[in-house]
Amino acid sequence: MIRNNLSLLLTERNLKITKVSNDTNISRTTLTALNQNDNKMIQMETINTLCKYLKITHCEFFEYTPIDATYTFYLGEILTSQKALDCGTPFEIEAIGYINFTRYDTSIGSVEFNGRMIDRGPIGYITSDKYIYEYEVQLSPVSDLNKYFNELSIPFQTQLKEEFIAFVEKQLEKEDEKKNIDYSKSYKLTVKFE
User: Fold this and answer.
1) What's the predicted TM-score (pTM) here?
2) In this structure, are residues 48 and 26 in contact, taking their beta carbons and an 8 Å threshold?
3) Which of 79, 114, 133, 152 gives a 20 to 30 Å CA spacing to 41?
4) pLDDT of 125 strictly over 70
């Protein structure tokens, strides 16, 4: 993985994106994407301008680790029996996720997350006959994350956690699209990393 350290560099120097944009003529949009490590590519001219402005080398601007991660998430078996549903127990489905780690494109292992998605039922109205349903998704690691996290800097750990949460949210949205859900859903996602 590679990431830039713009967020940390701006914080250390007590600089705001607006000021940097004004001083360097780099757009706020570009700087915001860089600050959040959301961009897929950076122009060399932008890197050069920022390095000169911050008085740093490109080595200080970027951080690299040979460890990469990919993610998997799916909903599994129904956990609530019909009898329990009839008694008012919330509908629950098994939720399973994985973070798969590679070093230099060679698999070094994965961490499994297990949990559940709980149907909390309607929480509000869109119209008189359409509701917003709330689903709570809870995931916790089954195995020790530290085996892999200890090799990563704190910013890389944070980035990896944010990417995994975003991936799970995206997969939940795809499930809704596949099923042609005609009502709105609200997800409360809780992922424990310890």
Assistant:
1) 0.82
2) no
3) 152
4) no
